[in-house]
Amino acid sequence: MIFMSDRIKVIPCSGMGKVYGLVARESALKVVQELCPQESSTVCLAYIVTGDQEAKELIEGVKCITLDGCPSMCAAKNAELAGGLVTEKVRVIDSFRKHKGAKPGTATELTEEGWLIVDEIAGEIAEKVKLLRKEG
Fold this sequence. Notes:
alpha/beta; 4-stranded parallel beta sheet; globular
């Protein structure tokens, strides 16, 4: 049995106002809800940023994978500041380099192309989650 505290934390950026943030959030949700629900969980970045004690306790000393929509890497930086062990830093914008000219949607709604990119990113993260779980 895997306890919540043993699960790999998948933490997306807030990325409000940009399609990359929406892709990050949807990718993280797909991992923790569908692909690896027993091996992973998520923590709201806003709680981490504001110093919420419960959020800090959830990630402190725990392996984390962060998903950032832009080069600012807010999820990665704040997870590390809160004591998370960030083992993977995924930049959503890098995934779009493989999809030149894609029309993924808007900050509030993804197109079919956008959902395909979400599936691709989520699949890659799920593999990383499984590898990290095997490592212990």
